[in-house]
Specification:
CATH superfamily of the largest domain: GntR ligand-binding domain-like
Order of helices and strands: HHEHHEEHHHHHH
Number of strands: 3
Strand content: under 5%
CATH topology of the largest domain: Four Helix Bundle (Hemerythrin (Met), subunit A)
Strand order of the largest sheet: 1-3-2
CATH class of the largest domain: Mainly Alpha
Mean pLDDT: 84
Largest sheet: 3 strands, antiparallel
Helix content: 55-70%
Number of helices: 10
Distance between the termini: 34 Å
Low-confidence stretches: 226-236
Radius of gyration: 19 Å
CATH architecture of the largest domain: Up-down Bundle
Length: 236
Amino acid sequence: MLLSLLYEASGLAEKPVYRALTDWVVLKILDGVRRGEFVPDQRLSEQDLAQRFDVSRAPVRDALHRLEQIGVVERRPPRGLYMRGWSAADHAEVEALVDAVNLLSVQLGCGRLTEDDFAQLERIVEEARQATEAGIEGERKQIQRDADFHLIIARATGNRRLVELMERLILPCVLYVSEEHVYLERDFWVKMHGSLLEELRTGNMERAEARAISNAREIREVMFNRNSQQPLETAS
């Protein structure tokens, strides 16, 4: 639920009556990180945030505690709470874990995906194929599509902890998009998601597993090894 709530955050201009203030503050801070309004190593003041969001300090304190738990904020004694940094090394570490969790989702979810699940996966691939967004906003959209694609597979496993772990791992990838990356080009992800979807539809776990491993290897190569100016292979 964390990522889906984050997607709503940009539309929450006013404090909604139907959501607890703590949840609202969490969402507003996360959206601020995504928009670059909160930056790595920035010190966070309860009083300043309370004034910014026009709330009391209690929901701000609770919100910061929750953000600390999910790794967005860190405590640095004796000076308080700061936004965590996000480096290329952090990204590489997280992506390695995401690959492992995605593979486990495919192994456990293959054969359990419903027709509604497949329809949602097809919709995500088609949305990527038809995408017209450009620049950073387009790349944010693609990361969200990628997250949604793999979360559908994870939810099909029925393993709640697996879904929670995946959401927590993917969150910083969604938050910290500040420059354009060649690996987020549309056709590349149509190819990656389309090929995995094709194997999942067969219900053959070994083939789906092999495709997930192959995709992960190619994604890592594109992300971390290729020159950013080298053109990507397009979907056939």
